[in-house]
TrEMBL record:
Belongs to the RNA polymerase beta' chain family. InterPro entries: DNA-dir_RpoC_beta_prime, RNA_pol_Rpb1_3, RNA_pol_Rpb1_3_sf. It comes from Rhinotus purpureus. Keywords: DNA-directed RNA polymerase, Nucleotidyltransferase, Transcription, Transferase. Residues 1-66 form the RNA polymerase Rpb1 domain. It is an enzyme of class 2 (transferase). This is DNA-directed RNA polymerase. SUPFAM superfamilies: beta and beta-prime subunits of DNA dependent RNA-polymerase (SSF64484).
């Protein structure tokens, strides 16, 4: 699961609208709003980080204390 998160949030991961919608429709807390795409031309693309931000609830805080 952590491997999938790492792969999804890499800098070179971009998703098209149909991919975003297919993933978000399984999310029970999704409010139906899709954020603005990170790239508009030549076609709208969303980053994996944007998708991950929609999946994680807003009240989650992460504090890193150790750096490896």
């Amino acid at each position: 699961t952590l491997t999938a998160v790492r792969k999804m949030t890499k800098r070179d991961v971009f998703l098209e609208k149909d991919q975003i919608m297919n993933l978000l429709m399984f999310l029970p807390i999704w409010d139906g709003k899709v954020p603005q795409p990170a790239i508009l031309k030549p076609k709208p693309l969303w980053t994996g980080k944007q998708l991950f931000s929609l999946i994680i609830p807003g009240n989650v805080n992460v504090i890193r204390t150790h750096f490896t």
